[in-house]
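Before relying on records like the one below, remember that each one covers exactly one chain. Contacts with other chains, cofactors or solvent are not represented anywhere in the record.
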Amino acid sequence: MDLEQYIDHTLLKPTATPLAIRQLCDEAREFNFYSVCVNSCYVALAKDELKDSVVKIAAVIGFPLGAMSTEAKLCEAQFCIEHGADEIDMVINIGWLKFKEYDLVKDEITKIKQTIGSRKLKVIIETCYLTAEEKKIASMLVVEGKADFVKTSTGFGSGGATFEDIELIKRVIQDRIKIKASGGIKDKKTAKRYIDMGVSRLGTSSGIEIVKNSNL
């Protein structure tokens, strides 16, 4: 089992420069990470940098707040696909979820999945802002919206992935879709535990530190 193939090598800071994105892509190629995860403005650059590589490109949309209109998210998703993204990581509208506008949340997920077609859709539910019951509801809405992954966190909220949240999400989704843990994953021990729990992908900016000298 290759630990590096679980990692979405991530750089989403607002200060990220084109030079930093090129370095991210070079690192992903060198360490054989599954993908790079970048903001939409850098999809084309990452595509060009990785054109002779098997490293995939994941793009975030509606990031990090999730509070823009569905139409804006759809436009961003379409832009990312047209410029070379293989996967989309979207943020749900957390306010809608908390106000029990469940149909709106589900409809947005469904529309984005329809827009990107066969490409993978990961839905960020931002667990740090949700009650246990809201996490359960959000996870089920991701399943019903036909997405491919539930993703825990943006990394920009008040907290990231936790082992407890992964257990809760697993009970809800029951292997119908996959899980991506993200936020606060900085060492091999933590990464390995998430994988042992059944997580299929890890979002981290510490991928190099995690895989160096690792024997999973």
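The first helix runs from residue 18 to 31.
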